[in-house]
Amino acid sequence: MSAPPEPPAADADADVDAPPARERAAIRLRLVGTAALAGALIAAVWLAAMLVVGDFAGSVETTFALGSLAFGFGLLGWSGAVALGRGIESMQTHLDTDTGWTERDARRAMARILGFGLGVMLGATVVGSVVATIA
Amino acid sequence: MSTETTTTNETATDVDQRGLIDRLTASPFVSRLLSNRLALAGIAIIVAMVVIALYARLFLDLEVITQSQLGTNPNRAAPSLDFPFGTDGQARSLLPRVAYGAWYAMLFGTVTVAASTVLGVGLGIVAAYYSDVTDNVIMRTMDVLLAFPSLLLALALVAIFPDDLGLWRAVAALTLVYTPRFARVVRGAALTVLENEYIDATVALGAADPRVLVRHVLPNCLAPITVQSTLNFGLAIIDLAALSFLGFGAEAGTPSWGLMLSNGVSQGLLTGVWWWSFFPGFFLALTVLGFNLLGDGMRDALDPRMREAVD
Amino acid sequence: MISTRFVLKRLLLLVPVLVGVASLVFSILHLSPGDPALTIAGERASEEFVRQVEESLGLNDPIWVQYGRFLLDAAQFQFGESFIIQRNTAVREVLANKLPVTLELAIYGQLIGISLGIPLGILSAVKQDSITDHLTRIGALAGISVPIFWSGPLLILLFAQVLGWLPTSGRISVLYNVEAIRVTGLVTVDTLIAGNWEMFVSAVRHMILPASVIGVYSMALISRMMRSSMLEVIRQDYMRTARAKGQGSKITVLKHGFRNAMIPVITVIGIQFGGLLGGAVLTETVFAIGGIGTLLVEAIKVGDYPIVQGTVLTFAFLFTLVNLGVDITYSILDPRIEQ
């Protein structure tokens, strides 16, 4: 997964002193947004290459499907982290098998994957419909 | 203290000069393991199964046996001196088929475990070494995969692969299902090794990333990887058989334990032909128990710092 | 105490879970080989007919349109009609018929697992390293090692064929017509509601073996977890203090330790519910009980995509619901972790 490097500003919200809601929303948006942008770019470049060499229509389908795979996976992981996060964290503390898992890290990783998938889907949609209208 | 630390404290040449046997017997891991009676029982079971598997592969030709039995054997005969495990619905003696099943279980189990070990080791070490975003994205993805019920995930993955792959389709699906377990173990172990000052010194001396990983991190993660592989071997054998049992694994006619069980249950059990499903299942369960006993013993013998990641 | 708002907030999580699962199902169906139109039309259908079917399924639309439509349909739990397994029956209807079967099996299996696993785990922890402890641990290990599709047949062999105490397969004796008294779809409940004692006994007798097979497996996991969790609690300081104060050690363990030790165990119970559903697939096959587990396997085999979609979403829904329940129980057991 080629998620972009984390912007240094995002690290500032170490959850210790929770930043105001608006700031948090902005950070989240940027996290998902950067990943989505990366996804859209990759999808666009790949499909452009396919337009020249290979089966374009089939590639749009496959790319979109792969995007929805990442999106669905990220979304599922995100909700899983939110739903079970406290349970798993506490279970690990109780059992002394601390693997360094935290709900916050999990949510962030999943937001990246989800955003990336969303970007790929959007990229495929845009490139696909543009090419369809031209052709 | 454990092998891990002792090895890291010595220079590389020291380690190379000592014989393999010496190193093994000197290892507290091995001596602790060998003093565990249950683990020894596990080893005995596994060795016996490997011998059966190799014997079947080398000396039994099922084609020839089936041909020679055609028309002469009784159908669904109860176990007797002639047919110690009885015969199945196609009048084939079950004994050689069950023995051959050991070969299939070992072969496909080994491939599955080996493939997921390689994938998992790669991902885990990369995650541990590069930390931060890479680590987080890789490991959290593995966590989500781990949260899926393994059999249901395997069923979903099996659907993706074309069905003319036969048992290899199940192997591919299960490899993906097991990879996260190895990634998690390896990452945990690698982090413990990386915390060691020795690695810092190596990095400071200018060793390139891949060299540090291969020369120093990987060898010190071998013990937990072996434990996880052993525990996973049993699981792989069960799951491969389960997929065959549900009709997603071995092609019809393959002497795999899962398929024999499936046929035995659906065609023989209700009419009293118990041996058709009993023997394949018995060998399957025994093999799995062997791996679980050994794996459990190995985990207990492991350095506590390494133990927590293995489950 | 937990508030209604907290529960509602948790329930809201079902939305992203189901959208996520629906997206996964969508992508897997599009990535997997196999052509739904060809499956419906049949291998020998004319090309024109196949194209007609494609048109009616909307397979010619751009993939993003298909995705949007799929999500909308999924939101209403509308998956169209089964292609093959029950031709021309709405997927919803097929699932409504089969779901209670699996639910019943899972509930009884889980009950057996919990009611045996927890006491065994505690016993094993309190008498650590005694013979009881060793036996329990080996038993648990054996419970995990023996595959359901072998222990099931063994139990059938022993209890149904050799001893003749219990029936071999099915949900209730073929003499009775359960459909006539269907209310919940759970046979053990329906027969009670109908007040027919003989039918109830028959249903219970049919349930014992399959539920035990599933239950033993979950017992093995729960007792292992309970043991380690209990040991951890016993080692903690306040337990030692309590013991130093002169309270009998066993009573102390039960009084102070249990509540705390239950917290991780409950998480495990929730997470392994998924494994239970997987086990249900195998158990239903062994005991010839037609639930959604066998339905899923059949649908994947023959390529009945609407059924696959519906079943997978149902599984995800159940799994999430159970785990949200676990999360809520959690807050009751340990108020400190309430946000």
Automatic annotation (TrEMBL), chain B:
Classification via Gene3D superfamilies: MetI-like
One Gene Ontology term from the biological process aspect of the record: transmembrane transport
InterPro entries the UniProt entry points to: BP-dependent_transpt_permease (IPR050366), MetI-like (IPR000515), MetI-like_sf (IPR035906)
Keyword check for Nucleus: no
UniProt key word Transferase: no
Primary location recorded for the protein, binned into one broad class: membrane
GO cellular component: plasma membrane
Localization terms from the record: Cell membrane
Record protein name field: ABC transporter permease
Keywords on record: Cell membrane, Membrane, Transmembrane, Transmembrane helix, Transport
TM spans (from-to): 38-60, 102-130, 142-161, 233-253, 273-295
Membrane-related topology note: Multi-pass membrane protein
UniProtKB/TrEMBL annotation, chain C:
Membrane topology note: Multi-pass membrane protein
Residues passing through the membrane, by range: 12-31, 105-126, 138-166, 207-226, 265-292, 312-333
Record's subcellular location: Cell membrane
InterPro entries, A to Z: BPD_transp_1_N, MetI-like, MetI-like_sf
Pfam families for this protein: BPD_transp_1, BPD_transp_1_N
SUPFAM superfamilies for this protein: MetI-like (SSF161098)
GO CC aspect terms: plasma membrane
Protein's UniProt keywords contain Transmembrane helix: yes
Domain ABC transmembrane type-1: 99-330
Keyword list, A-Z: Cell membrane, Membrane, Transmembrane, Transmembrane helix, Transport
Protein name: ABC transporter permease
Top-level taxon in the UniProt lineage: Archaea
Lineage: Archaea, Methanobacteriati, Methanobacteriota, Stenosarchaea group, Halobacteria
PANTHER family named among the record's database cross-references: DIPEPTIDE TRANSPORT SYSTEM PERMEASE PROTEIN DPPB-RELATED (PTHR43163)
Keyword Transmembrane carried by entry: yes
Family stated for the protein in its record: Belongs to the binding-protein-dependent transport system permease family.
Family annotation (CDD domains): TM_PBP2
A GO biological-process term: transmembrane transport
